[in-house]
Specification:
Number of domains: 2
Order of helices and strands: HHHHHHHHHHEHEHHHEHEHEHEHEEE
Number of strands: 9
Strand content: 5-15%
Strand order of the largest sheet: 3-2-4-5-1-6-7-8-9
Distance between the termini: 74 Å
Radius of gyration: 29 Å
Largest sheet: 9 strands, mixed
CATH class of the largest domain: Alpha Beta
CATH topology of the largest domain: Rossmann fold
CATH superfamily of the largest domain: P-loop containing nucleotide triphosphate hydrolases
CATH architecture of the largest domain: 3-Layer(aba) Sandwich
Shape: elongated
Length: about 450
C-alpha cells in the first residue's frame, strides 16, 4: 500500500541524481544546493541519505572535498553505505553527469525543489482532510489553519533563496534615488492630512497602524475620512471591517462628510435642494470608489484574516490590488470562538495576528483601538502609549501609533470646540509629531487646519 502511494507522488529521480552528481563534481554546486535544498526535498531514499552525507562533509569540514571517495567514506561512517547501493551506485551517478554543462545544476535544483513542494502540498491537504474528519477544532480555526499552511508553502517557495546583499543594496539605492528625484512625494497611501503624510510618507505597505482614542473623540469619523479620501485620490481598493456600525450608517456618514452637509439634518430629512445636490454628488464619487465593507459583528481574528485573504485574492484575479485594511475596532475582535479568561493575552494575540496580516497581504492595516480611562485620571489628559487598553503588545507590534484628542471633550471651552490633535506617539520609520486638525462635528469631519474651507 505504501509503495502504491509513493508511485503517484510528484518526483524527479533524474534531477535528484543530477544534483548529487553535480555536488560530487563541483564545490560551487554544493554551495548552490546547500542554499536551496534540504535532505527532505529528495524523494528517493538513497538520494536523501547521500545528500545528507554530502552536506555533512560540506558544512562540517574545513576546505571540504566532496567526491566519490569522501562521500563513500562518510556513508561508511554513517553505516548507511549499503542502503544507497554502495560505491558502485555513487560511481554510476558521477559518470552519468560527466560532459553535462555545470550551468544546468540550477535547473536540476529547481526541479527537485518544485516536486518537493508539490509533495508537501499533498501532505498538507491530506492533513487538512484528516483534521476536518476527526478533530473537534471549530470550523473557523480549521479554515484559518488550512489557509495559513497553504500560505506557508507559498512563502517557502518564495523564500527558498536568501536575498543577496548586493541585490538589497541595489534596491535600497533605487529607493533613495527615487526619493531624491521626487522630493516630498508620498510613497504610501495619502491620507488627506499633509503633516501626517510627511511624517509617515503615507500609509506604508506591511505596516500595522493603530489609531486610538477615548470613546466620543471621533476615531471612526477620522478613519472614514481617510478611507474616503484615499479611495478617491489614490484609486486604491479598501476593505473596512466595521464590528460596531452597520454598512448603511457608515456610507451615510461618508456621504455627509464628503458633501459637508449636516449629518443631523440628513438623518431627520430636513435638507435643502442644494444640500441634496451636494449629497448626490458626493454619493456619486463614493459609489465610484473601490471600497468594500464587512459589518459582521463579533468577528474572530480568524474570520477577519480569512475574509481579508479571500478579498485580496478576488481583487488580484480581477487585476486589482488591495491597498488598505481598516478595522473598527480592535477590542471588538475575538481571538477564538471560545471564551478566553485572559483578555490581555487575547488582545496581544490579536495584535500580533494583525501585524502578521499586514505583512502577509502586503498592505497597511489601520486598526482603531480604545484607550483606558487612565488619561482621564490625570491633570494632563492627552493620551500616552501606556494608555493603550488591555495590552502593551499593541504598542510593541504596531509600526505607528496615533492618538486622537480633543480638549473640548473635557473642558467644554467654546474656543476649543473645533480643535483637535492627532498625536503621532510612535513612528517606527519616521518622526513623532502632533498634527493640528479642524473638527466639524455636524459633518463628522476632520480637516487639516489650513484647508478647512476647501471644496
Amino acid at each position: 500500500m505504501a509503495t502504491a502511494k509513493r508511485s503517484v507522488l510528484p518526483s524527479s529521480p533524474e534531477a535528484e541524481a543530477a544534483v548529487i552528481a553535480s555536488c560530487m563534481l563541483s564545490s560551487d554546486s554544493c554551495s548552490l544546493a546547500a542554499e536551496r535544498l534540504t535532505a527532505e526535498d529528495f524523494f528517493v531514499p538513497a538520494h536523501k541519505i547521500i545528500y545528507q552525507a554530502i552536506m555533512k562533509i560540506f558544512n562540517d569540514t574545513p576546505n571540504p572535498v566532496v567526491d566519490l571517495i569522501t562521500v563513500g567514506d562518510e556513508l561508511r561512517r554513517m553505516k548507511r553505505l549499503d542502503e544507497t547501493g554502495g560505491i558502485a551506485y555513487l560511481a554510476e551517478l558521477e559518470s552519468s553527469l560527466i560532459g553535462t554543462a555545470a550551468s544546468n545544476t540550477s535547473e536540476y535544483i529547481k526541479r527537485v525543489k518544485d516536486t518537493a513542494i508539490k509533495r508537501r502540498l499533498i501532505d498538507i491537504c491530506q492533513g487538512i482532510v484528516n483534521v476536518a474528519m476527526s478533530s473537534d477544532m471549530e470550523s473557523d480555526e480549521q479554515l484559518d489553519n488550512a489557509e495559513s499552511l497553504i500560505f506557508r508553502i507559498r512563502q517557502e517557495k518564495k523564500s527558498s533563496d536568501f536575498d543577496e546583499i548586493s541585490e538589497i543594496v541595489h534596491e535600497a539605492i533605487k529607493e533613495v534615488d527615487n526619493l531624491y528625484q521626487n522630493k516630498g512625494k508620498i510613497s504610501g497611501i495619502e491620507t488627506h492630512y499633509p503633516r501626517l503624510d510627511q511624517a509617515t510618507r503615507g500609509l506604508q505597505r506591511q505596516e500595522f497602524i493603530v489609531l486610538a482614542a477615548r470613546p466620543g473623540m471621533g476615531k471612526t469619523a477620522f478613519a472614514l475620512n481617510i478611507a474616503t479620501e484615499a479611495a478617491i485620490k489614490n484609486k486604491v481598493s479598501i476593505l473596512i471591517f466595521s464590528l460596531e456600525m452597520n454598512s448603511l450608517r457608515i456610507v451615510s456618514r461618508m456621504i455627509s462628510s464628503l458633501a459637508r452637509v449636516d449629518s443631523q439634518r440628513v438623518n431627520t430629512g430636513f435638507i435643502s435642494h442644494s444640500d441634496f445636490d451636494q449629497l448626490t454628488n458626493a454619493a456619486s464619487k463614493i459609489a465610484s470608489t473601490d471600497i468594500y465593507i464587512d459589518d459582521s459583528s463579533a468577528m474572530s481574528i480568524l474570520e477577519v484574516k480569512a475574509k481579508a485573504r479571500r478579498k485580496a485574492d478576488d481583487l488580484s484575479k480581477r487585476g486589482k490590488k488591495l491597498g488598505l485594511v481598516i478595522i473598527d475596532y480592535l477590542q471588538l475582535i475575538r481571538y477564538t470562538e471560545s471564551r478566553v479568561d485572559n483578555r490581555q493575552q487575547e488582545v496581544a494575540n490579536i495584535s500580533m495576528a494583525l501585524k502578521a496580516l499586514s505583512k502577509e497581504l502586503d498592505v497597511p492595516v489601520l486598526a482603531l483601538s480604545q484607550l483606558s480611562r487612565a488619561s482621564e485620571m490625570r491633570t494632563e489628559r492627552k493620551p500616552q502609549l501606556s494608555d493603550l487598553r488591555e495590552s502593551g503588545a499593541i504598542e510593541q507590534d504596531s509600526d505607528v501609533v496615533m492618538f486622537l484628542h480633543r480638549d473640548y471633550y473635557y473642558s467644554k471651552d467654546e474656543e476649543e470646540k473645533n480643535k483637535a490633535e492627532l498625536i503621532i506617539a510612535k513612528n517606527r520609520n519616521g518622526p513623532t509629531d502632533i498634527v493640528k486638525l479642524h473638527w466639524t462635528p455636524e459633518y463628522l469631519r476632520f480637516d487639516p487646519i489650513d484647508v478647512t474651507e476647501e471644496d
